[in-house]
Amino acid sequence: MENIRFYNGNEMPIVGLGTFRVENNDECKASVKHAIESGYTHIDTAMIYENEDKVGEGIAEGLASTGLKRSDLFITSKLWLDDYGRGNVEAAYETSLKKLNLDYLDLYLMHWPGTDEALMIDTWQGMEDLYKDNKVKNIGVSNFNVEHLEALLAQVSIKPVINQVEFHPYLLQEALRRYLEVQNIHMESWSPLMNAQILDDTTVKEIAEEVGKSPAQVIIRWNVEHGVVVIPKSVTPSRIEENLNVFDFKLTTTQIEKLDNLNEDRRIGPDPIGYNGH
Question: What is the pTM of this model?
Fold first, then answer.
């Protein structure tokens, strides 16, 4: 497993297990456990996914069966818009911890910027409070555009370590990626496989044949080659294993360019501008 390093010196595994749209049931628990047994040390969830309980059970069972320690894992959850406001952040964080049955998170994210800039800034100050009090290892944001980040960075004392956004060959986010690079903020990709839509792309399939890997592995590797943290979601044991098996090959410059050239600025999720959670 490769790690990326934040500006504060902390590290994060570049590939993790996403749990968006995974129901809060035993399948969720089993998939998280299997991921840890398969070598994953990075698990991503969120309050709004409503599966933190079973993710937490899967973490506990995975630790028990592998002999790993809590400190060997990197666990992320996210603050939902309903809990925004500096005074609400800590209680929401503690609720997530309780559901996950953990003492701390490695990363806590503001899930969306929202539509109220003053509230966004105020909420981030609550995130800073958690970080300053050593309750969380790292704080970051999700679905922030350049304009959201500029507004935030103009008024706060602690920068996000990461911005988790929609990113895949059909949505390259080039301006955002350049901005994050200048700011020394990492980028993370949610829904990297576009709910499997990208896997049917002819170019993706051709490159998969060239390198002897699956289309999903090609896309995950493409993220890694771009230095983007990537959290493919699966509950299928064989796919969970396959999605992590991306460190024994590299894409050529030509292959990366071919994938980059698929860009259509096409989103499958909401546009962060104007999105308030509904």
Answer: 0.97
